Amino acid sequence: MLDVDDTLCLTEAACFDLENDVLARLGREPMSRAAHVATWGQPLLQAMPRRSPGLDLDAFTAVYPEVLRAYVAAGRLDVVAPDNLRALDELAAAGRSLMLLTSRTEAEMEHLMAPGHALAGRIAAVYHAGNVRHGKPDARAFDELLAATGLEPRQCLYVGDSPGDAQAANGAGLRFAACLQSGLRQRADFAPHHVDAFLDAFPDLVHTVAHLETPAAAGCDHRRDEGEMRLLRDRR
Questions:
Q1: CA-CA-CA-CA torsion for 218, 223, 127, 228, nearest 10 degrees?
Q2: Is 159 exposed, middle or buried (0-12, 13-18, 19+ CB in 10 A)?
């Protein structure tokens, strides 16, 4: 299962511009890039008061969807690179069932879930703030997905870009791969957490999954049962 921001899509820089455009429409000073990066990975409405102290969240929420739609329409946000789409196809061809799990709201995910989007037919299910009771880094963020699929945590790999992603996956008993493609985080940032693999770029996931499924790789993690790890292998 996959995170969206700075994992499947590189989005931090675009979101920084988008949110500052919303702030400008509200007559507010722009946030600093440092403030944005420091709170990156948090749910938007949780992060915005730190990015722009004193912000009227109701006013922000009223303007944000229009600006979001404009960025999506202009191809400035949530562009899934062709190499990433090919990686998804290779994983699916190998029998994997791919799902998204993100801290975004349903409104922030609507365009990615649209029938005509490039992800249509490639992603089996999408879990977001609108259909899960708990958000990352809470390990219970995976409860609904695990219940719906009947999968055991040890059969799943979560791919994300933040220490909070690692914390949630570790707590739930899932394997975790850290995607470093955005350049915002380094391996040392994940030191407090268990990481099964680091990805320099998202397409590296194809070879990483194949490696993690080898008996030697499966046996090297004493905290999980022996045997092959499956990346949400389709049980249908």
A1: 20
A2: buried
Contact indicator for 36, 23 with CB cutoff of 8 Å:
no
pTM listed for this prediction: 0.89
CA gap 33, 108 in Å, rounded: 21
Average pLDDT rounded to a whole number, residues 205-212: 96
Q: Which domain holds residue 120?
A: 82-219
Encoding tokens for residue 17?
A: 């511009």
CB 5 within 8 A of CB 12: yes
Same-domain check for residues 186 and 103: yes
| Contact in structure between 185 and 161 (CB atoms under 8 Å) | yes
pLDDT at 142 over 90: yes
Return the CATH number at 110.
3.40.50.1000
